[in-house]
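Issue 218. Parser rejects a valid record. Input:
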Amino acid sequence: MELASHVTLAALGQQTLVGLSRTTILFIVSSGLSLILGVLRIPNVSHGSLYMIGAFITWTIASAIGGSAGFWAAMALGPLAVGLLSLAVERGLFCRLYEREHLMLLLFTFALTLVFGDMVKFVWGSDFRSLSVPHAMQGSLTVLGLPFPRYNLFLLAVGPLVAWGMWYLTNRTRIGKIARAAAVDREIVAAMGINVSWVFAFVFCIGCFLAGLGGALVAPTQNITQGMDHSLIMEAFLIVIMGGLGNIWGALLGALIFGLTDAIGILVWPQFAIVFPYVAVVIVLFFRPRGLLKSVW
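Output the parser choked on:
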């Protein structure tokens, strides 16, 4: 087990692009988790399970319709189905628990993780699934003299769009401003005649929709299997803490650090690559215990 004696500039550039495409998935999932944590104050451990369900639903829709139309329909309908599932859970269960202590909410979301895991096993079984990209996205393009998969370039374009959309939602729309106010003082917001319960439902659905979107986008890049949520949820929580609670740009920066350190670690010291992102988290939190950027809630 030796540290790589030399790393070419071309290899470093290629791994950086790979890390950036992984950053997109991490950011999308983490931004949804950050939104729920920031507004509802709920440590939603089941967020990773919704990511997994989003991947399975996307595969199911794409397989049922087939072709390029099936792929793009699945990309749109898969996250939407997760959002509707989350709405049913929130209206049926979560809305009754907002006043309870955080430990009960944490245990409840952990119980949901077990329920969702069994649901996935019952509906889709234990076998893994795989999703192919449309013909137009197959193969590679040359970027800075390096071959890079077309689908990964698509992921690089989606990430900034989601970041801008989240920023616009929370800072420029009425519902976003109400959600931010409710996060600070929900009693005052309710006294103004606003139905805080439905505001929370909207925020929860948007956060879970992003988890489903992350699952849909990752489906063509890896095997879709039960248990794919376990490592992802831990990474998402670390990214949210590292970036700053409720700060969308903080989640983006945290995901960027996590994704790039992982990709470069594989290139430099593959035997211990898994350690690199966690070392980065420790270093960041040692110097910035409250996160890289200021919490906005």
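Fixed in the parser; the record now loads. Residues 9-287 form a domain with the ABC transporter involved in vitamin B12 uptake, BtuC fold (CATH 1.10.3470).
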